[in-house]
Design goal:
By secondary structure, the protein is mostly helical. It has a domain of 139 residues. It has 32 helices and no strands. α18 crosses α19, α23 packs across α32 and α25 packs antiparallel against α32. It is globular. It starts with a helix and ends with a helix.
């Protein structure tokens, strides 16, 4: 393709030069005048009539010292003005003075040639298929999303601060799910904010939350010609985290110069290889290795990846010696290529790499299952997705060890004949530390347990498992089997969709038996009940004093979420609730923040989410 492009350039440049020379100086007409003004054609001869020969035009006599005229039988070709030998052509008339010479064009890459000649595409879709930037998103209001005009009249500065100020990890699984729903909704941009900035802010926050798969779907809802640097950065992170590096190739063609970092240069080279220009890709990667635009391990991985596009790529050795940090680039390309990562390098990586391992299809199944617990705890994976992963594990006889044992235990949790055996299998999965990701895994198995007082000792954890997947109707079957003041009672008091008031005496029993640090579970229970309006004001004041919490104290954040609730704006409340739930553990959460979040969500019609967040706080506090 490059050879055809360059041949076309030579031919086009020569044609342009010839046309330009005609425009600058007309050549001397060497034909006799009779050829320009021929006489009338003679009548056709009659039969058997002798035809008189026509006189031939005379050539003017040659003047002494002048060259002989050219033969009229050949083409008239004028030399290029100022041109030397054909191997060293001079500047082309009619083009800018700084226009590259033909020799310089020959040495250029295809992208550089397209840039010089203005051939770079501006759109990657035909006009009829281009989409409007209004209502960018995935979920319509009829599909569970928020109304499209939810944020249209809100201050752009407030919406921007709510998303930029959220660093991603949230203590609550249900808070994570709610915020993901808000960010994925089809929404109009706030007044004073461009739709591109709004989409980029949402996609970037989804990436920080570990929701790169949703971020990919969101950035794909925006045509490539609208992209700016922030939008491209969000798309780059999303595609890389999901292991879909080639998804960036259309953007690399549209916006090759929008980023100038080493990873972008490597991405462009890889895309060239998969577009059929293997030689150009090899030159770019060799140059990257020599100039040090990226670490050697990153370039080697890119060379291996690009080499897979050819019929017989050159061998590239991947050496991890001296590499002390795992980056998204290294994880993504290693997983796609099937390159083993050093165990210490992978185990020391932050939690966000677990989310990538869950989302990249090329990751071995055993490693996806190992990463699934953290993803389920965060809210990235649903209970059904967890069960699907473990089912694949159980069906793969080639996998042995702890992972397969856990898959067998999950099967027992569903099919064991005795309820006590099913509970025992669940407890084995939960572990002594109460692994919340495993509680998400066993939610539907717990919902199959009979609500019996014989299982009252296990009711609290079983109910917490059900509520992890939102199975509140199944959980409420245990209302008559749990004892007042127990953990099961506390969770049902918050999860009950009927909204019944609780007894101060039962709360006191729960508080008296609370062994959590700083009575955190009791403080969260009090805040949740207060936010849902399920505790008497006298009991609220009494226990607030005993626990040393002030649920009514205001901050700028609490004022804003309260105002959003008064304006009955669920989408804005969800964004601000996400800001208030940041952290990597419930020890980062305060009862006061929980109270304002639950109260605001309940006020704008998000009562189910409010109840699940409050119950989760008590279960995990």
């Amino acid at each position: 393709m490059r050879r055809a492009v360059k041949q076309s350039l030579w031919a086009g440049a020569a044609a342009l030069a010839f046309t330009s020379s005609l425009a600058l100086a007309q050549p001397e007409d060497l034909l006799p005048d009779i050829f320009n003004n021929p006489p009338p054609e003679a009548p056709a001869p009659r039969p058997q009539q002798t035809q008189v020969p026509r006189p031939q035009p005379t050539v003017p006599p040659q003047q002494p010292g002048t060259p002989a005229p050219r033969s009229t039988s050949g083409p008239v070709v004028q030399p290029l003005p100022g041109a030397g030998s054909p191997s060293a052509p001079g500047p082309i008339p009619g083009l800018p003075a700084n226009f590259p010479s033909l020799a310089e064009l020959e040495a250029m890459e295809e992208d550089e040639i397209n840039e010089v000649l203005g051939l770079r595409p501006k759109f990657d879709v035909p006009p009829a298929a281009r989409r409007s930037m209004e209502r960018v998103g995935l979920l319509a209001s009829s599909e569970g999303g928020f109304p499209y005009a939810s944020l249209a009249r809100q201050p752009a500065a407030l919406v921007r601060a709510a998303m930029e100020g959220n660093r991603g990890p949230m203590v609550s699984r249900w808070g994570h799910i709610l915020l993901r729903r808000a960010l994925a909704s089809r929404l109009d941009a706030p007044a004073g904010m461009s739709p591109v900035e709004f989409a980029a802010l949402r996609a970037s926050l989804l990436n920080r939350m570990g929701e790169a798969r949703v971020a990919v779907d969101l950035v794909q809802d925006v045509d490539g010609n609208f992209y700016d640097r922030a939008m491209l950065d969000a798309a780059f992170d999303a595609y890389l985290t999901t292991g879909d590096l080639l998804g960036l190739c259309p953007l690399s063609r549209l916006h090759p110069d929008l980023r100038d970092d080493g990873e972008w240069e490597l991405t462009r080279a890889i895309c060239d290889a998969y577009l059929g220009d293997q030689r150009s890709a090899e030159r770019q990667l060799d140059r990257a290795l020599g100039t040090g635009v990226a670490p050697e391990i990153d370039v080697r991985l890119a060379q291996r990846f690009a080499g897979a596009a050819g019929d017989a790529g050159r061998a590239v050795n991947i050496e991890w010696d001296g590499v002390d940090r795992l980056s998204p680039w290294r994880l993504s390309l290693s997983r796609a290529l099937g390159v083993d990562l050093p165990e210490g390098l992978r185990s020391a990586a932050p939690a966000r790499f677990d989310f990538a391992d869950v989302l990249i299809p090329a990751v071995p199944l055993a490693q996806r299952v190992s990463a699934a617990d953290r993803a389920a705890t965060r809210g990235v994976l649903s209970s059904q997705a967890m069960v699907d992963l473990y089912s694949q594990m159980f069906g793969n006889e080639a996998i042995e060890g702890d992972s397969r044992s856990r898959a067998a235990q999950l099967r027992q949790a569903y099919v064991a004949a005795e309820p006590a055996d099913r509970v025992a299998a669940m407890r084995s999965l939960w572990g002594t530390d109460g692994n919340y990701g495993r509680m998400v895994l066993t939610a539907f198995a717990a919902a199959r347990l009979p609500a019996s007082s014989a299982l009252a000792d296990d009711a609290g954890d079983a109910i917490a498992s059900m509520l992890a997947a939102g199975l509140d109707a199944n959980a409420m079957r245990w209302a008559g089997a749990v004892e007042g003041g127990s953990m099961g009672w506390a969770l049902l008091a918050l999860a009950d969709p009927r909204g019944q008031q609780v007894s101060g005496g039962d709360f006191g029993s729960f508080y008296g038996d609370d062994g959590s640090p700083d009575e955190r579970k009791s403080a969260f229970l009090l805040a949740g009940l207060a936010g849902l309006g399920r505790i008497d004001s006298g009991d609220l004041a009494r226990y607030s004093n005993d626990l040393g919490v002030d649920l009514q104290r205001q901050t700028v954040w609490s004022q804003r979420i309260g105002q959003a609730a008064q304006a009955n704006n669920p989408a804005l409340v969800a964004l601000l609730a996400g800001v208030g739930m940041q952290g990597d553990g419930w020890d980062k959460m305060t009862a006061r923040h929980l109270y304002h979040i639950v109260a605001a969500l309940n006020a704008v019609g998000l009562g189910a989410e409010a109840r699940m967040i409050a119950a989760e706080a008590v279960a995990r506090g």
